[in-house]
Amino acid sequence: MCPYSPAFLPFHFLLLVLLSSIFLPLCASTHDYHDALTKSILFFEGQRSGRLPPDQQATWRGDSAVSDGSQAGVDLEGGYYDAGDNVKFGFPLAFTTTMLAWGVVEFGELMPPDELRNAEVAVRWATDYLLKTISHPGLIFVQVGDPINDHNCWERPEDMDTARTVYNVTADRPGSEVAGETAAALAAASMVFRETDTEYANMLMAGAKKAFNFADTYKGAYSDDPGLKAGVCPFYCDFDGYQDELLWGAAWLRRASEEDNYLEYIQNNGKTLGAEENINEFGWDNKHAGLNVLISKEFLEGQVLSLESYKGSADSFMCTLVPESTSSHIQYTPGGLIYKPGGSNMQHVTSISFLLLAYAKYLSQSAMTVNCGNITVGPTTLISQAKKQVDYLLGDNPMNMSYMVGYGTRYPQRIHHRGSSLPSISIHPQPIACKDGSDYYTSPDPNPNPHIGAVVGGPGDDDVYKDDRADFRTSEPTTYINAPLVGVLGYFVANPY
C-alpha cells in the first residue's frame, strides 16, 4: 500500500499540491484491483434478504424475512437490505440494481470470467425481487419493513421481530421516482442477460416498460403521500423530484430496446422535465449528471442534434472534477477525496468515479474531448481522476487505510451494521431480541463478522476516520456505495496503470 507522507515533499511542490487541492500518490499504485473487485461483489451476499442459496459465501448470514409480503397477501421475499439495517427500501434498491447492471454493460467484458458471473448473480438477486414488486396490476410495491421500529432495534436480520410493513404506490398514490428507477434497473439488466438468458432478458424488458408506463401515467412523488412519507422519510424521501427518474427510465429503455418512441419521449419531454437544469449530482435521489452522461452516448454515436445539450451538460460536470480547469469545482478533502457534506460520502466518490470512466469510454469511442475553458480534457484525464478516487478508497490516503472491509492490512473494524456486529446465528443460534443487541452496538470490540467488501461512508472533510460504529454517517456501508464501484474496479482490473 502506498504510504501517504507529504512531509517528505519539497516545500515548493507541497505548496503547488495544496493549491490544486489534490495530493498526488507518492509511489506507483500497487493495488490488487482483482481482489478488490471480488470483495466488492461479495459484499452483496451479506446484504441478501430471503432464503440463501447453497453456494452462499458470506456464511455468517442465514435465511431472513422469508415471509415478506405475506401481510399484503403477496410474495416479496428476496432483494437486498439497503445498508446496516433490515429494511428493503425500493428506491435505493432499484438504483443499486441500475448501477450494478450499468457496470456489467460497460465494463463486464473487462472483468475476469468468474467475477463477471458473480456480478451477474448480484444483479439477478435484485431483479428477481424487482419483478415481484411490479407483478400485481395497478400497483408497485416500494418497501418492506417499518423503518422507525427497525431503527430502534439492534438485531440480526435472522432474528428481526419488528413489523414487516408493506408499502406500495398506486394510481391514486403515485411514485414516479421509484417506478422510473425500477424501469431503468430492469432495462439495464435486460442488457446484462441478453446473450446468456434471452427469455429472462425479455421478461426484464417487459417489466421495464410496464414500470415506466406506470411512472409516466401516474405522475407524482411517493413521499408526497402522508402514509408513504411516514414510512420512507427521512431515510429515502424524494428530495429532488421525480422528473429526472422519468427521463432516466426513458433513457435506459431507449438504450436497451433501441426503440424510437423512447428517444422521442426524451426529445419531447426533456425541457419540461428539467433535463436542461445543469445539476452536478448523481446518486439514488438525483440522476441528472448520470442522465447527461448516458444520453450523451446517443449524441456522440448518432449525432442526434436535439441531444447535443446533454453533452454540454456532461462536459460541464466533468470540468468541475478537473482541478486544473477554471470551472467552479467540486469540493475535495486535503488528501484528494471528492467530498459532499451530508454523510455517506463514499456514495459520491464511487458514483462519480463511474461516470468519469463511462464518459471517458464514450469520448474515446467517438474521438471527442471536453472543453474546460482554459484546457481541453480528454479520456486519459478523466480516467486519471477516477483512479485517484479509487486508490484513495483502497488505501492511498492520509489515514493509510482501506475503506473497504477485508481489503489491505488496515480497514474499518467497527462498521455500523447489525449482522456484522452481532454474533453469527451459526455460532449463537439463540435469538437476540430487539434491545438485547445494544451491548454489541456500544462495544469497543471489532465486529465479530467481517463484512468483506463493504465500503463505509468514509472520512470527513479533514480526511480523518474514527472507526466509530455509532457514527453511521461515516461507518455504515450501503449497497449504492458498492454498486458503482463494481464497474469501476472491473475497468481497473484490465487497466491497472
TrEMBL record:
Entry's EC annotation = 3.2.1.4
Q: Which residues form the Glycoside hydrolase family domain?
A: 33-489
Record keywords, A-Z? Carbohydrate metabolism, Cellulose degradation, Glycosidase, Hydrolase, Polysaccharide degradation, Signal
Query: What Pfam families does UniProt report for this protein, alphabetically?
Result: Glyco_hydro_9
Supply the InterPro entries for this chain: 6-hairpin_glycosidase_sf, 6hp_glycosidase-like_sf, Glyco_hydro_9, Glyco_hydro_9_Asp/Glu_AS, Glyco_hydro_9_His_AS
Gene Ontology MF: a single term: cellulase activity
GO biological process terms, alphabetically, are: cellulose catabolic process
Its signal peptide is 1-29
Q: Which reaction does it catalyse?
A: Endohydrolysis of (1->4)-beta-D-glucosidic linkages in cellulose, lichenin and cereal beta-D-glucans
Q: Where are the transmembrane segments?
A: none
Annotated active site residues, numbered on this chain, are 416, 467, 476
Family label = Belongs to the glycosyl hydrolase 9 (cellulase E) family.
In its UniProt entry, what is this protein called?
Endoglucanase
